[in-house]
Amino acid sequence: MSARYALVLIAVTAGFSTGCGSTAKRVDERPLPAAQRHESEPGTARSGALVGRYSSPRVTGDYAGYPAVTAFIDEMAARHGFPKDYLAGVLSQAHRKQWTLDYLTREAGPTVVTPRPGAWTRYRSKFLTELHINGGVSFWQRHGRSLQRASERYGVPPEYILGIIGVETQFGRNVGDHRVLDALTTLAFDYPRRAEYFRGELEKFLLMTRNERIDPAKPVGSYAGAMGLGQFMPSSFLSWAVDFDGDGRRDLWQADDAVGSVANYFVEHGWQRGEPVVTAATATNANVQNLESGYDSQYAAATLVANGIRPAAPLPDDASLSLLRLRAIRGDEYWLGHKNFYVITRYNHSTHYAMAVYQLAQAIKRRYLESRQATR
Ligand SMILES: [Ca+2]
Predict the structure, then answer these.
(1) How many CB atoms lie within 10 A of CB 56?
(2) Which of 17, 227, 325, 327 could form a disulfide with 293 if both were Cys (CB 3.0 to 4.6 A apart)?
(3) Consecutive 10-residue averages of pLDDT for the chain (376 residues)
(4) What spacing in Å lies between the alpha carbon of 177 and ligand 1's midpoint?
(5) 168 is catalytic
(6) Which backbone phi and psi does 210 adopt, to 5 degrees?
C-alpha cells in the first residue's frame, strides 16, 4: 500500500515521498493499504519474547496523562498478557507526530467523486516511469527464484507481485522513515476520526514485535504505519505475511518474505490462477458514458456489448466484468475488469491504483523478457 493507508491515504499526493505507496486516495476515502482492511484475530504471541529494556511505572513523555493510553495498556495486559510496565515504557518512547496530524487535517475534505479529465494520465505518470520499470526488471533478476516459487505456489505471476512492490515502494526505495511506534500512537490517540482503527493497528503492531522478537521502537514505515516493501499494515502482517525464505521469521523488509506475502495476500483475496486481469475495450456509441463504472461495477459481457462496448478480445456472454472508465488527457479509455482486477483493488480500493499495478506489471514483464533475449 504505497504506504498507503499509508499510502493509502494518499493519493492526493502523488508526490508524497514517505513510502506510502499507492495512494491515490485521500485519507478519508480510506482505502488503506494492504494492510488494513481486515480486522483479524490478533496473532498468537510467544510469551517471554519481549525485546528492549522498556519498563516504567507510568507513561512519561508526549503521551503522559492520556486516560485512553492507560486504558489501552490495561486492555493489552488483560487480552494479551503484556506486562503493564513494559508497555508504559514502550509508549513513553512514542513521539506525537504533529506533522502527520497537520497533514491529515489539510487533506480532509470533500471527496472528489468524478475524476477530472486527465486524472488517469496524471496518476499513471507517477508510476509508469523508467525508474519503476527498470527497478522491476532489476528486482526480477535479483529475486527471480523466489518470484518463480511464489508464482508456482500461489498462482500469481511474478509481474503482478512486482507491480505491487513497485507502486508501493519502488522496490524498497520508499519504505518510509517514520517510526511505526510514533505513527500508530499518534493516530491512535490524537486522531479521533480513525482512533479505533489505529488502536487496533497499534495492538497488532505490538503483537507483531513480540511474535517476531523486534524492538518496537525500531521499525520505520509510512506516516500511517505501513511497513516494508509491500507496505503492510500490522493487521495485514498478522493475517497474511509469510516466512517465504524459511528463516523462521516474517520480515516485511526482506525481499523473499515480501514477495511471498504479497502473493499470499492476493490468493487469500480470491486471485484466480491463470485468469486475466483486464480486457481492453472501445466505446462504439455515446450511451456508454451513462453506464456506471468503477472496479465495483458489475455487468454481464452481453449487457456491455448491447450498450456499445466492444471488447478487444472475445468474452463469454455470461462473463462477469466491471466497466473501467479512465479519464485520460486524450479522452476516456475503457477497460473491462475481471475478478483478478478486483483482487488487486483489495490492496488499495482504487481503480487507478489497480490499473497502475497492472500496467506497470506489463511494462516490467516486457522489458524483462527483452533483457533475457538480449543476453542469449
Ligand atoms: Ca523470513
Answers:
(1) 18
(2) 325
(3) 41 31 32 36 50 93 98 98 97 97 84 77 97 98 98 98 98 96 98 96 97 95 97 97 96 97 98 97 91 96 95 92 96 96 97 98 98 86
(4) 22
(5) yes
(6) -70, -45
